[in-house]
Amino acid sequence: MSAVSDAALATARQRYFSGQDLAEGLVPAPILRSWQRCLEQGLDAGDALHAEPMSAGELRALQQQNEGLRLLSRPELVTLRAQAKLTDSVVILTDANGLVLDTAGSADFAGQAAQVALRPGVAWSETSTGTNAIGTAMAERRAIEVRGGEHFFEPHGILNCAASPIVDPFGKLAGVLDISGHASLQPSHALGLVRLAVEQIEHRFFARDFDEMTVVRFHRSADLLGTAREGILVFDGQKLLAGNRRALHLVGLDRRALRKATQDEIFEGAALAIQRGELRARNGERFFAAVSAPQARPLQIIGTLPRQAKPAANRPFLTPSTRADLSKAIRLVNAEIPLLIAGETGAGKEIFVRHLVGLTNRSGKPFIAINCAALPESLIEAELFGYEAGAFTGAHKSGAKGLVQQAEGGILFLDEIGDMPLSLQSRLLRVLQDKEVAPLGGGSRQKADFVAICATNRDLKAMIDAGSFRTDLYFRIAQYTVTLPALAELPDRSAVVKTLWSEHARHHAALPEPVVTRLAAYSWPGNFRELVGALRTLAALHDPGETITLAALPQSAGASPAVIAQDGDLETLTEAAMRRAVDLHKGNLSAAARSLNIDRSTLYRRLIWKDSGGR
User: From CA 80, how far away is CA 147, in angstroms rounded?
Assistant: First the structure.
């Protein structure tokens, strides 16, 4: 907020809390309603804060009670954690009562936030902490932003917070996701990030517990089936049992319809019949749909979903040395001997592994890729090794297989193995040695058939010397090491450019040789990931059949590669394509990132963070 708006808000606070009327528009209506609720509860805005956190034991018990919610929210916490570090803020997950379960992000700001009780184990409902994004989102049942002096208690004026309630499939509040930062620095996009993240979490709720129900997934666009943008309704017989907010909106209902409405009241056609490729609602809307009934597998899906491409027989970025390694690696995987793939970030380690696996006798079998850097220590055991029924509150009623067991008969790919917490390396070692998995909750050990392939961009031997990586685990996973070269080290980068262009711009003509030469001459510090992003950018900015010239790369066509890197013109080109993709997908950052073949966090970092002034 500007200094003027800060002053205006301070004046509005003084007038309101002294009993005077406010001119309309000075304070947002939801904030005024919250202030009124706080006053009715007898809170005093000038009081000192007395929030007492739970003991460590009480906090552990609270986290265990909400382990199901924490597991479902983990991917979003990991993604937002990186964004929060960039913006000097923290991302917060609470339970349904506003009790803080987890925080992640900027360590510096987390320390400042703790001074106003914004830390695990503290309740942030309105009744205990006054107007704040978490508590007010709970009270209003909507996403909301509370800025600086809009907080009820004066000490909270150092915060800008954006939060959204997390609603379970039955319409009940499950928790709240929040991003909080400095009142002077919080970027304006935080509320949008929280909304997107909560949509993903709520979508993930429907991946469990409904095997015996009829599940309807639908959207106006076939491309959005299977994404968090789809509507989902669950029926127990004829009765509507559960549904997400998007589904209820699409068919003109609200959460009061849950457990009351019936199939026939919502959709035309007996038993949710899909006629002529469509499902029609009673309000006249027509949708592409997937209907899953008990004992009916696979899902009946209208529309084509993308399939994973098979590995190509010949890749120009396989150097003679790498080709020799590939041949050896095929024989080693077939002999069930673990491999370690080393290389810089973006050097194509996972691409190489998928190509390798497609040439082994485990081709077509499960391929489970795990990013060890993205697995928080508190959840990693349940994720990797599974759990028995009743292992923790919120666990699936029949338990769940871990990622290791999901790789049965295939490949377990452990990416960024150097980032696995030291305390968990010993258990992973036992699993790799014994090929047995013991799920959480006291279940019996079960045999596991998989081949482990690990990857890292770190110097594991140096980590062993530093005491941060186990020697015995290293020798278990590194029985043979393949080191992938950086893109700049490849002898024929022109062939790489041409091959990747043909794969990622199928509807475009071949790149002119001068453009290929310019792209091949650039150093590409981000390796293949950066090059692929640039090529997809070029494709997005040009129509099929349109000639791509040197002028489309740097503004000064005759600049040397070194000058190009300094001028940042490729950066400008990339940013333009990112913005165009976001516009084409109507602000859906996940869809835009998929269309560009980049991580969603990259869009956050390159666009939204930049829009906030790099703060």
Answer: 20
